[in-house]
UniProtKB/TrEMBL annotation:
Transmembrane segments: none
InterPro entries: Nuclease_put_TT1808 (IPR012296), Restrct_endonuc-II-like (IPR011335), Uma2 (IPR008538)
Protein name listed in UniProt: Putative restriction endonuclease domain-containing protein
Species in which this protein is naturally found: Nonomuraea gerenzanensis
Putative restriction endonuclease domain: residues covered: 2-134
Pfam families in UniProt: Uma2 (PF05685)
């Protein structure tokens, strides 16, 4: 189910993004000199120079997405929220498949994310930031 959600979200994002941006799965994101994370999905500029092909800077990321599972829930809800905010990623989305699914949208406010807005399955939602996107989170499991 985890990979299905990522695939479906990537397709929705690819259709909604401006032509200069693209969704990319499982890239290494360097958040400090010694720490890195591997988000399930990120939005990057298409013309981003691939310096070494191994690590990407969070300053180039518009959005990081994590799809939850029982084994990653605490890390996705706490550790990564703090780390991604500290790294300056403007938007963080967390998808919880076991909640319908539910999409949690976080927006950077200074050096922390504000409280997330939850979008539940069965409700058509139109997001305006970081780019226009219409979806019902239920689409992520279809």
């Amino acid at each position: 189910m985890h990979q299905r959600v990522i695939y479906r979200l990537q397709r929705l994002l690819d259709d909604a993004l401006p032509p200069e941006m693209e969704p990319v799965q499982t890239v290494n994101m360097l958040v400090s000199k010694k720490d890195y994370y591997i988000p399930d999905l990120v939005i990057l500029p298409k013309d981003l120079p691939d310096s070494d092909g191994l690590m990407f800077s969070p300053k180039d990321m518009l959005l990081a997405v994590e799809v939850g599972s029982p084994s990653t829930k605490l890390r996705d809800e706490d550790v990564k929220v703090k780390a991604y905010a500290k790294a300056g990623i403007p938007f963080y989305w967390r998808v919880e498949p076991d909640e319908g699914p539910t999409l949690y949208v976080y927006e950077l406010n200074g050096d922390t994310y504000g409280p997330p807005t939850a979008y539940k399955a069965g409700t058509q939602t139109t997001l305006s930031k970081p780019f226009p996107l219409a979806l019902d989170p239920a689409q992520l499991l279809e």
